[in-house]
Amino acid sequence: MNAGTTTGPGSHGEPETGLVVAAYGRHVLIEDERKDRHRCILARRRLRAVCGDIVQWARAIDASGGVVLEISPRTTELTRPSRRGDREVLAANIEQVVVVAAPRPDPDPFLIDRYLAASELMGTDGCLVYNKSDLDPERSEMDLSEYSAVGYPVVTTSVRNGAGLEELRGLLKGKISIFVGHSGVGKSSLLNLLIPGAEIETAALSTASGEGRHTTTASVLHRLNVGGAVIDSPGVRDYAPSPIASRDVSAGFREIDGRRGDCRFSNCMHLKEPGCAVKDAVESGDISARRYESYRRLVRLMEQLGREVS
Ligand SMILES: Nc1nc2c(ncn2[C@@H]2O[C@H](COP(=O)(O)OP(=O)(O)O)[C@@H](O)[C@H]2O)c(=O)[nH]1
Ligand SMILES: [Mg+2]
Ligand SMILES: [Zn+2]
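^ thats the input. predicted complex w/ guanosine-5'-diphosphate below
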């Protein structure tokens, strides 16, 4: 019986509200209001659910699982450029982007800046976790002050010796966060330390979805016992926010955006214009030259993406 795709009278219960804790194509795992999890199928081809979505769903009466009927409007969307050049939603209703970096694999500050820019652009909190601090006791492999100087919380952690774990827990408490960053920096290890059994749970979820091979490619939402939740996202080699106008890039860099009104020209792009307060601040060292370079690179990237779509 194809209970997963029909919603005829009698086959399903009344619609109820649920939370998407994992999505694998048309298969999604829904957490109900009692925090039980159910394997569901999207009712219509046009529906596209991502981790963190709030949905209306109906449970199958004579079988396990159910069907997702509607996806509620999202408060935030973490996106990246899709292969076709527009935007692909990675996760929904996020309140905080937690960028995880480590001494190894080599930290990439430009990648960190692009994630923080994405969090600024979607209007959520952003913060930085420097994990594997046991490998860099002197904190010499990365300039963390670039981030704390502009107001991002920075937490130094180690899964090896437990350093910073309580501070991290405090940062995550009561919010829906997503862990992002290079693969291999320790996102899943941190999560497993925060939520013992998270790894086992991830494996169980992907088996229940019947799509076990997606274990490492899907985002999974885990509840914290202090309130809130963390979405563990698969590791990436690279990331950029989805296409925006190049003049909107400055909104992704708070120290640049904050000087917007001080430039001679109101439409200053802070690139070659005279009387640019941002370039002055870079010269005087008030803005990190490296963060500014990140801004310029992202402007160039958005110009390229813009040309590709048009
Ligand atoms: N030395 C050290 N190794 C760590 C730490 N955290 C994670 N690792 C190791 O780094 C590797 C990648 O970790 P993983 O959690 O899979 O990274 P992810 O790809 O970001 O999820 C594993 O071999 C972990 O054991 C840490 O704090 N210190
Ligand atoms: Mg991982
Ligand atoms: Zn300017």
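Residues 187-188, 235 surround magnesium ion (ligand 2) (CB under 6 Å).
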